[in-house]
Amino acid sequence: MTKATPISGSDLPLLRVRPPGPISATMGARLHNVESRNVTFVGPEWPVFWREAVGSNVLDVDGNIYIDLTSAFGVALLGHAHESVLSSMNEAASFIHGMGDIHPPEPKLTLLEKLARFSPWPDAKVILSTGGSEAVEAALKTAALASGRPGVIAFQGAYHGLTAGSLSATPRPHFRSFFEEKLYGGVSFAPFPDPLRDSSPHGQASLEAVGLALLEGAPNGDPIGSIIIEPVQARGGVRIPPDGFMRKLSEIAAESGVLLIADEIMTGMGRCGAPFASSLLGLEPDIVVVGKALGGGLPISACLAPSHIMDAWPPSTGEAIHTSTFLGHPLSCTVAAAVLDAIQLQEIPNQASRMGKNLLEGLREQLVGVAGIGDIRGLGLLLGIEFVEEDGISPARGRGARIAEEALTEGLILLPGGDNGHVLELTPSASLTETQAEYAVDTIASVIRRTP
Ligand SMILES: Cc1ncc(COP(=O)(O)O)c(C=O)c1O
Q1: Burial class (CB in 10 A: 0-12, 13-18, 19+), 176
Q2: How far is the CA of 266 from the centre of ligand 1 (A)?
Q3: What is the CA radius of gyration of the chain?
Q4: Domains of the chain and any CATH numbers
Q5: What is the pLDDT of residue 1?
Q6: Which of 34, 217, 304, 327 lies 20 to 30 A from 377 at CA?
Q7: How would DSSP label each residue in 35-93?
Q8: pLDDT tens digits for 375-390?
């Protein structure tokens, strides 16, 4: 570290004042004056303003130290301010910005070659972008060009982003309702097999819905050219498909000549216990999108596909057809290349798999017999606790959100998920120490017991 910081990355929580403390509260009031009010929710119990983040720790403006069990939306898989990120940022200090698609920055080439080797295909080609939604846009465009058919099948509960194209494939009314008539109408939504409520083998009901949409075309009549799916629905409530579902979906896509896009923005780069979660679940994608952990905290994402698919794009004749100002941003590319090396050298997928199993076991042991829990599930370092009503089926609306709020007062940063905020999600960093993990499991269990 270049700057002295009171957090080591492996600290246990230390709360000087009940969060949100007085400085966070004052900042919340100031934020209200200057930010569009749709963005940050500010209430009496939420949020805390962050000042520093290192490893699995966050320091807030009131001097409180937390364990971050979200790795800030799944980004800090290696840990916040990881040494590979810091040293590569230092190395890139004399080359921050360039001209990505005109006079290419050298670090762009280095990253593309590494990403192509990391990808599932021997001949992958890449389109870089800055955020996850943008990578999804690139994937949807690539699929439309390569298949010649613009229609898309996506899944209920999915989250693919909020830009126009990615939002078209994101079914949640909360994000869509104001813009419905501006969104592409060629997306058909099939149910994602639900671990608690769908007893059909291999998610048969979902597969049948996919089959029907392939026959009937999209709601606007467009023929279907692609299927986009998260291997594990992350924001949808850590929904892990049943055995066999992804394999059968891949077969259906191949038989009907439809391209499968795996949205691995949350699940990829090792989080779930393999470089790509698709391989663990039998999903055989034609296009993969990654983001979040790739940049180790810098905004960079990528759409990857084998060359016979990516070459559906016409060659540039001097003006790119799909690009942006920050495509191939040298600083982000240098850091992402170092992050990719670190993920491989430190065997992050294996580490995530081992740590995830321990966390899952710990949570299941501590929560055995506790009423109102429908399911505790996880794949690597993507875990969820689903809360249900007394019938064991209906989602306990907002309970995940209430628990995340209460856990903050014990020094844990957590987020709710699921359509009804009824899932408590954990996407910790691989830097989480055993002591931090034990504290987290014990504290989550006691917060759940006392928070209806
Ligand atoms: C699976 C998935 N896809 C796409 C996105 C959108 O990424 P971004 O918020 O970087 O645009 C997210 C973000 O949470 C995500 O989890």
Answers
A1: middle
A2: 7
A3: 22
A4: 95-345 (3.40.640.10)
A5: 47
A6: 304
A7: S-TTT---BTTB---EEEEEBTEEEETTS-EEEESSHHHHT-TT-BT-HHHHHHHHHGG
A8: 999 999 999 999 999 9
- In contact, 218 and 188? CB cutoff 8 Å: yes
Q: Is pLDDT of 195 > 50?
A: yes
Task: Assign 3-class secondary structure to 193-256.
Answer: CCCCCCCCHHHHHHHHHHHHHHHHCCCCCCCEEEEEECCCECCCCCECCCCCHHHHHHHHHHHC
Q: Are the C-beta atoms of residues 402 and 451 closer than 8 Å to each other?
A: yes
Closest-CA residue, ligand 1 atom 4, reads 160
Cα dihedral 112, 114, 115, 118, rounded to 10, equals: 160
Distance from Cα 133 to the centre of ligand 1, integer Å: 6
Give the burial class of 119: count Cβ atoms within 10 A of its Cβ; 0-12 exposed, 13-18 middle, 19 or more buried.
Answer: buried
β-strand pairing of 415-417 with 423-426: antiparallel
Name all residues whose Cβ lies below 6 A of ligand 1.
73, 131-133, 136, 159-161, 230, 234-235, 263, 265-266, 291
Q: Closest ligand 1 atom, CA of 131?
A: 10
User: What is this structure's pTM?
Assistant: 0.97
Task: Specify the pairing of strand 65-68 against strand 412-413.
Answer: parallel
Q: Whose CA is nearest to atom 3 of ligand 1?
A: 160
Number of the ligand 1 atom closest to the C-alpha atom of 162: 11
Distance 22 CA to ligand 1 centre (A): 32
What is the 264 CA–ligand 1 centroid distance (Å)? 9
Residue keyed to tokens 């065997």 = 347
Atom of ligand 1 nearest to the CA of 301: 10
List, by residue number, the catalytic residues: 159
Ligand 1 centroid, distance to 311 Cα (angstroms): 25
How confident is the model over 118-151, as pLDDT tens digits?
999 999 999 999 999 999 999 999 999 999 999 9
Of the candidates 209, 72, 225, 218, the residue with the CA atom closest to the CA atom of residue 139: 225
Residue 317: count other Cβ atoms within 10 Å of its Cβ: 7
